[in-house]
Structure formats: C-alpha cells, structure tokens
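Example record used in the benchmark description.
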Amino acid sequence: MNILKQNKAVLLLIFVFVMGVFISPGLAHEITPSSLVFDKTVNVNEHPNLKIRVKDNTGCNADITATVSDTSVVEVIPTEQEGVDVEFTVEKIGFGPASTTIRVTFKGKGTNSMGGACTDDAFADVNVEIKPGVLEVSPEVASVFVFTQGSLSIKSKQVNYSISNVGDDEISVLGRNFQKWAQINEAGTLNPLIEFVAPGQTSSTQARVSIVDVALGVGLHKDMATITNGTNGMGNTSIPIFFLIGSANDTLVVVSDSFFSCNRSGKCDPEQPSVAMGNAEDSSKGVTVTSSENWVDLAIADITAGSDSKANIAGQVFMEPQAQTANTIVESGDIVNVNITPNSNSANLPNGKHEAVLTFADTDTNEVLATRTVSFALTDDPFPQFAKDSKIVSPYWQADSATYTFMSVSHPSMSGMNSRIGVSISAVSNSGVSVDAPAEFTISSGESEKIFIVTTNNTVINPTNLPNDQLIVADEDGGHGQVIINPIASNPKERRAGGGEGAGFRDVTMLSLWGAVVILNNSTGFAMEFVGDLKDSRAINTGVFSGLN
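Model output (structure tokens):
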C-alpha cells in the first residue's frame, strides 16, 4: 500500500511538471482597461484618466510595452511596476482620426515558478476613441441690412446666433469678419467673440453682426463672417453679410442697372442673373416687378439663394419663374433677389446686347417705386466644335477696376494664307460663359487689330474714345477666365483655290498674337500666353513688362 501511494505521488509530480512545461503563459496574461470591459472601445474624452492594467499570474518575468498606432493623438505612460504587473496611463495630446489603437505586449522570459518556459509572447489591443468637440451655430441664415443715405437708422433682419458644442471635448470659439464696415461681436456688446464651450453645452453668449460704418456708396455691399472652432476646426460656420444702400428718400432700394451674359446653351454669368431689392421702411411692402420684354422670365428668390451671395445657406428656396411679372412682399429690413432668366423667346434674338426695363411698383397703389435697365449679351457657345488645331487659346484674361486686358492680332502675309481671315474672339468666364458678345472682325494682309477686355465703368477705354478698336466689355465687377480665338470660316483648314473669297487658308492659327494683362496704377502687367497661334507662345518667355503706353 505504501509503495502504491509513493507511485501515485511520483506520477502526480510528473503530471504537474509536464503541464507546467506545456501551459502557455499567454493564457494567464490579463490586460484590461481599468474598470472597463476589455473588448469594448473606450472613449478617452469620457475617461481622461484612463488606465490600462497589465497583470501576469504565471510567475514569469517579462518585458511589458505599450505602443500607439498614432502618436499624435494619445500617448501611454507606464506609472507603476510590480514584478510583471504594469499600469499605463493614457493621455490625450491632440486630435486626429476617429480612433487609435494601443497595443500592449507581454514578452515572457526565463522560466516560471513551476519550471515552465516563459518565451511565449502575448498581446492585446485597446481601441481608444478620440471624439473632439464640434461647433454648431444656429440659425444658418445671413445677416441682412438696408439703409438709405441721410437716414438716421438702419433697417435689418438682424439675427442672434447661438453657439453649441455637440462633441465630447471643450472647444474655443472665435468670431471674425473681413470688411471694416461690419463687425461680429458678442450679442449686445462690442466685445470680440471669444468663448469656451464645454461638451454638450450651448453657450450663454450669442453672436451678432452689426454695421459700424455707413459711409459707403450706393449699391449692394457684401462681407462674410466666420464663427470658428479654434480647437480643431470642426463645425466652422460662415455667415454671409449683405448691406444694401440706397439714395436718400428711396422707399424701395434697388441695385443700379445691371449687365449679364448668357449663351445659347443656357449658361449665364453670373450663374443666376438677378437684381437685389430691399425695404428701408418700417413696415412690409408689396412689390410687383414687371419686364418690358417677353424674352425674359422673372422670379423672386431669397438673397442667400442667388449667385450674388456665393453661399450655401440652409433653407434657401427658389420660386418658379412667373413670366414677365413677379410679386412678393418685402419685409422691413429684408433683401430679396429678382431672378432674371432668358426664356425660349430669346432664341429669336440675334447675338449681341439686348436690354429689358424692369419696373418696380407698389402692389397696392401701383405707384412706380423704381425702374432699372438690365442688359444681356446673348452669345453662341464659345466652344464650337472646331478641331484643336483650328483654334487658339489663352489661359488667362482679367478685367476689373484696377486692370484690363490688351491683345493684338497681326496678319503676317505668309505664303499659303488667305489675304482676308475672319476672327472671332471670346472672353470666357470661369463658369464657361462669354462675358460679352465675341469680338468678330476680318483681318487683311499686313494689318493688325487691337482688342481690349475692360469693364463697363472704364472711363478711358470705351467705344467713344476707341471707335476703331475691338472691345469686349464685362460688367462693372469684372472677372477673369480664358480667351478663345475661333475662325469664322467653317472649314479653315481647306485651302481655297481662289475666286471671290481669295486663295489660301482662312486659318486663325496662321495669325500672330500678343497680349498682356495691364495693371492701371503703375502701367505694368504680365504677358499673356497664346497656345496655337503662328508663334505659339509656349516657346516664348512670358515675363513681366513695364512702361506700356
């Protein structure tokens, strides 16, 4: 019996030894975020003192490390070590992706207390969410002001904007605008908008836009205010500002005569031609707008919905065109757009400039409150289907109050050229629309033609002063884009044998072009590049020039 007991004891020791060798020490490693279930993603914003506890129960010595997949977001710091027990503190140090991974690695070494090998590695990943603070501004509407010169007060649909943090971390909020005649401040004060907003809270401070200078000219003035999340930029909000100024005694303020351009494919510059009108009186006013011409349709739209604003504001609504008459009620201090769209009747008009007179009348009394003339340049598509080798392109033109564009076209009288070549030059805006009817002319051997691209308010370069030159006239705001030089001949690469139209090619790419964008205040500028003409400016240095007369 004693021998049996001794044999059983030996077998038990052998079993324990074998099991000690083959038990993987990794099965006994315990890696958990403190007080949290390990397999759950944890939010470092909600647990700013997040700790990861690493514990081993096998009696192995070990090296324990923690690495972070994005070191710009969080870092882990070992704070305690007892044998192979380590505690890491996780600290947020920035904002990056929505989450990052912390990998805790247990690298056993030596043997455990039972003689088992401790060479197995074990690791576990802790997914840590990074949820930053997010700014939310409401309502998402513009700040609108109407004023008549000599008046003692500004009428306005002024708005207080609430500021909220819908994220999980504190944010700093800053307000600013660009023009000196307006300011965005804490509502009810002249204090700059600087605020800190806790997670999930709406600030007791509201933002408000105000006008601080009315010494501006008659017309529609625009600015943009921004309310910015200074912590991480999430939720930055732009607020359009519109300030419409009219002449003294205007009961309805309407912008001055306007110029637009549209091509036959329906594209216009600006994208939606419109005229702004505002109510500077204390009470609302019914207004009926009528067009003198049947080739345009009228519709009423919110000021923030038109192309004038260049803004995307929630709640914008376009009304359907109402033929040659549009009716609306303009609230005190409000501005609305009268959208003007050429209709199918415009197809019967020749290319060129056409005018329509808009009459603004009181809906109740029929009293005429204002009249305005709108001019449209109706053009063909500036990109007719000529082959690439039949046209010339310049990638940039510019015209505004400080600049204009000059070009010269010369006929070099080379062998094979027709003695007379028809040329069509379009100044195309970035929206793909010619800003004016094309400059079309026929150039003869040995001649040069001068072309200017200017704005309507250029008092020097105009048809009166330059009756023999070609002018392309953009509206007073000007613009920039590309120049397209097309042939007038339908088959410019066909060599004419002679006869009434003369012999040779009527090909614009055989002409020689030069041009420059001129800066008015110092008579300097920069040369234009022409791709596809005789000299092909791709091979010519297009540096800065000066001294243009």
